Amino acid sequence: MELLLMIDAAKRASAKSVVAVIPYFGWARQDRKDKPRVSIGAKLVADLLSVAGIDRLITMDLHADQIQGFFNIPVDHLYASAVFLPYIQSLQLENLVIATPDVGGSKRASTFSKYLGVPLVLCNKSREKANEVASMQIIGDVEGKNVVLIDDIVDTAGTITKAANIMLEAGAQSVRAIASHCVMSDPASFRVQESALTEMVFTDSIPYAKKCPKVKQLSIADMFAETIKRVMNNESISSQYII
């Protein structure tokens, strides 16, 4: 609501243009009606922002790329891979494999594995209800490997920690996890700390109170600052995209 009021105030003050910078589009998981009597929250918020008067949106790692189509204005969709890939390379891990904790994230993880030139491992999960994983199977070989799990959002950390524990049991040498957005609802911090994860790396799109020593955050400030500068100067932002 505060953002909508600020947009309205800027428009009423005769602003030439209003660009909304929202690193974490928090309604992105409500992108479709997947059961009766639920709201498509992502579409509703897109409409609210448009009606309030934004001329452009800059965001990062939407849960579903098609959310860009909910807007009738330009959407600059940045990727956290711009900060994650250099970090992974700096670790200089031997026998590296990229993994995804669920099949739905296979496209995202596949782009990482192709860029780094390493194998891809999948986890197939089933849920009994929201935020609770009933079972999980590994598709691929992790024995003796250093595994990096790739995800976009970690909420209660049930999926990511279960995947890490299963991979260590399957013979992985180490398991790390990388995710764009640090929601970390309780009991996520406890789960990460007690899991097989060596570290859990996020961007700082969402502030995190240091409850878990395994959690590390990488800054996206430079990436967004450069993008904003290019947008304001009417320059191409293509160079901001790694994946």
TrEMBL record:
- SUPFAM superfamilies per record: PRTase-like (SSF53271)
Quick check: keyword Phosphoprotein in the entry?
A: no
- One GO molecular-function annotation for this sequence? ribose phosphate diphosphokinase activity
Q: Which Gene3D superfamilies match?
A: 3.40.50.2020
- Pfam families assigned to the protein according to its UniProt record, in alphabetical order: Pribosyl_synth, Pribosyltran_N
InterPro entries attached to this UniProt entry: PRib_PP_synth_CS (IPR000842), Pribosyltran_N (IPR029099), PRTase-like (IPR029057), PRTase_dom (IPR000836), Rib-P_diPkinase (IPR005946)
Keywords from the named record: ATP-binding, Kinase, Magnesium, Metal-binding, Nucleotide biosynthesis, Nucleotide-binding, Transferase
* GO terms under cellular component: cytoplasm; ribose phosphate diphosphokinase complex
Please list the GO biological process terms of this entry: 5-phosphoribose 1-diphosphate biosynthetic process; purine nucleotide biosynthetic process; ribonucleoside monophosphate biosynthetic process
Query: PANTHER family, alphabetically?
Result: RIBOSE-PHOSPHATE DIPHOSPHOKINASE FAMILY MEMBER (PTHR10210), RIBOSE-PHOSPHATE PYROPHOSPHOKINASE 1, CHLOROPLASTIC (PTHR10210:SF41)
Please report the name of this protein according to its UniProt entry: ribose-phosphate diphosphokinase
Species name for this entry? Bacteroides xylanisolvens SD CC 1b
